[in-house]
């Protein structure tokens, strides 16, 4: 069966019943959205800090291929397996964005028999969080133009408004637009553009805020632009937008509780992309899970050079948490891709390409263990095209790194197929204490932080940027040098060039643009031709998504 057919045949438990039986959450602290999903109250979460923290396991991956390699599926399968082995385990995932669902990547609720359900709801409108985020973001956009139209008391320079608009869909035609056309009643014409909602600073703020009060404070700190003449910064609080934005996000800050196919609890909340933002689920959801279970399994987007680095250097700094172990997901086909095999030929055995592509896994493993000081388990996410010779070669090469590569068949067998992986994770948690450290000093100049990520994680020789970007980083370092950096680059390579596979070294990381996210409290450096508004592929997934005669959704994956 397809992923959606498996999900549609699931026997789900009513979410109120599941929450009470498995987590001890009283019904009055849950607002159900139908029978199988609910929002958890912030009041209940505020009661949890006295409980001991669970062990935190971060699932990350090697550099992905355009086809995707099953990191979310592995996260779900591992969580199910740990529960099967008697460990009270919570799973924390990001919410899928509609752009990839209708574009090329598909949804983000797992796959096969390692899925989170109700799959259609999670991958589509879910509980309305993304809608609330988009409206809050675009409210600020509207209030900026309204301020310009009605006299511009703040003397805001329309040429230096940095705040774009957002939509939850891939649409390249909206990257650069002009607003305010049509004469005086429509305001002042100016250049503008759209980002996808996952790239919005409002998304990052929601995911990094611990409370409604912090959320409102961070929203007020959003940098809107600069004044004419003296270049003074103008913030969302100067426009008086942050209060209304917080109102729109009041319910969106509450984590969403759902379940796996095996009826294990999952919090799905927040959804920034790790190639253009920090790529982690919300701090609220993660911290709540750490008080509700013995082990928490969470994920970070794309490869470890992106999601894991930002999880550790941004989320862990801001939230005061750290993982106890990391699972590095690898696939035979992805390593063959990094060894030079085209996507269309990845199902054919190729030991030479696998050997060459192994350098990608080794680099990620070194970064996690040597740069960040974390114990690491390698999980081989099994595909039916993998041959015994390929699996044996990969396990032997991983063994030379000093750890065991565990073959996991959760896609085909659910939690049962990941029990070996779960045992290895449990052994690591019991026997290998982390020696966690951040990659760079908190008070280093922003340029030095970018260079640290580029050279220590990406293998770059140096970083370049034009004079405008350098001046902007130098200026921001005067007041915000304590902020971490969030590097936006291609997910397909350690470099800024998607065509450089494997583990390239000696390349130059080129910074094209700098965006200060002062509400989220990090600085974004955009590299190469990275876009914060993706486009649809030649044949988007939307062409195959449909309703059948019974009203059931088909084609969603």
Brief write-up:
The chain has 19 helices and 25 strands.
3D structure, described in words:
It is a single chain. With 557 residues, the chain is of the alpha/beta class. The chain folds into three domains: 3-127 and 252-431, 3-Layer(aba) Sandwich (Rossmann fold); 130-248, Domain 2, N(10)-formyltetrahydrofolate synthetase, CATH 3.30.1510; 446-527, Formyltetrahydrofolate synthetase, domain 3. Strands 1, 2, 3, 4, 5, 6, 14, 15, 16, 17, 18 and 19 form a twelve-stranded mixed sheet that branches. A four-stranded mixed sheet has the order 20-22-23-21. Strands 7-12-13 form a three-stranded antiparallel sheet, with no helix packed on it. The longest helix has 21 residues, at 129-149. It is globular, with a radius of gyration of 23 Å. The mean pLDDT is 95.
Sum up the overall morphology in one term: globular
The CATH topology of the largest domain is Rossmann fold
What's the architecture of the largest domain in CATH terms? 3-Layer(aba) Sandwich
User: By CATH's scheme, which homologous superfamily of the largest domain applies?
Assistant: P-loop containing nucleotide triphosphate hydrolases
Number of H- or I-type helical stretches: 19
Content of β-strand: 15-25%
Q: Averaged pLDDT, please?
A: 95
Q: Biggest sheet, open or closed, and with what strands and sense?
A: 12 strands, mixed
| N-to-C span | 12 Å
Unreliable sequence segments: none
């Amino acid at each position: 069966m397809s992923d959606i057919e498996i999900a549609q045949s699931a026997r789900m438990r009513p979410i109120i019943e599941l929450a009470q039986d498995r987590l001890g959450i009283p019904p009055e602290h849950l607002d159900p959205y139908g029978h199988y999903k609910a929002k958890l109250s912030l009041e209940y979460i505020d009661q949890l800090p006295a409980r001991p923290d669970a062990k935190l396991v971060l699932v990350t991956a090697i550099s992905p291929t355009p086809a995707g390699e099953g990191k979310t599926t592995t996260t779900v399968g591992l969580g199910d397996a740990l529960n099967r082995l008697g460990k009270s385990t919570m799973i924390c995932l990001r919410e899928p964005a509609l752009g990839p669902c209708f574009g090329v990547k598909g949804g983000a609720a797992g796959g096969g028999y390692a899925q989170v359900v109700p799959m259609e709801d999670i991958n589509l409108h879910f509980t309305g969080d993304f809608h609330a985020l988009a409206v809050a973001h675009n409210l600020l956009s509207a209030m900026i133009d309204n301020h310009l139209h009605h006299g511009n008391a703040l003397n805001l320079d329309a040429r230096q408004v940095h705040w774009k608009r957002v939509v939850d869909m891939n649409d390249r035609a909206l990257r650069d637009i002009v607003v305010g056309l049509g004469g005086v009643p429509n305001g002042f014409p100016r250049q503008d553009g759209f980002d996808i909602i996952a790239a919005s600073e409002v998304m990052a703020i929601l995911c990094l805020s611990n409370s409604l009060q912090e959320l409102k404070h961070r929203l007020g700190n959003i940098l809107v632009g600069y004044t004419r003449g003296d270049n003074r910064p103008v913030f969302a609080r100067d426009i008086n937008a942050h209060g209304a934005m917080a109102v729109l996000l009041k319910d969106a800050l509450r984590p969403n509780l759902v379940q796996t196919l095996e009826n294990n609890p999952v919090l799905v909340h927040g959804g920034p992309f790790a190639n253009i933002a920090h790529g982690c689920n919300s701090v609220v959801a993660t911290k709540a899970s750490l008080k509700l279970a013995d082990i928490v399994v969470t994920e970070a987007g794309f490869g470890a050079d992106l999601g894991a680095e930002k999880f550790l250097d941004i989320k862990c700094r801001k939230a005061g948490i750290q993982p106890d172990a990391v699972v590095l997901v690898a696939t035979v086909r992805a390593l063959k891709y990094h060894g030079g095999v085209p996507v269309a030929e990845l199902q054919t055995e190729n030991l030479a390409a696998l050997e060459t592509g192994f350098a990608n896994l080794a680099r990620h493993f070194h970064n996690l263990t040597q740069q960040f000081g974390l114990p690491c388990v390698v999980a081989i996410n099994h595909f039916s095209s993998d041959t015994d010779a390929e699996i044996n070669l990969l396990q032997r090469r991983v063994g030379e790194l000093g750890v065991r590569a565990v073959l996991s068949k959760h896609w085909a067998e659910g939690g049962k197929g990941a029990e070996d992986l779960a045992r290895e994770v449990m052994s690591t948690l019991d026997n290998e204490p982390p020696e966690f450290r951040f990659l760079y000093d908190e008070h280093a100049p922003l340029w030095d932080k970018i260079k640290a990520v580029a050279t220590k994680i990406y293998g770059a020789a140096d970083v370049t940027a034009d004079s405008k970007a350098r001046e902007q980083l130098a200026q921001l370092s005067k007041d915000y040098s304590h902020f971490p950096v969030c590097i936006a680059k291609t997910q397909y390579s350690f470099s800024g060039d998607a065509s450089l596979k494997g583990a390239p070294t000696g390349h130059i990381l080129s910074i094209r643009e700098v965006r200060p996210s002062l509400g989220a409290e990090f600085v974004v450096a955009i590299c190469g031709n990275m876009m914060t508004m993706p486009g649809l592929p030649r044949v988007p997934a939307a062409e195959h998504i449909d309703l059948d005669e019974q009203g059931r959704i088909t084609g969603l994956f």
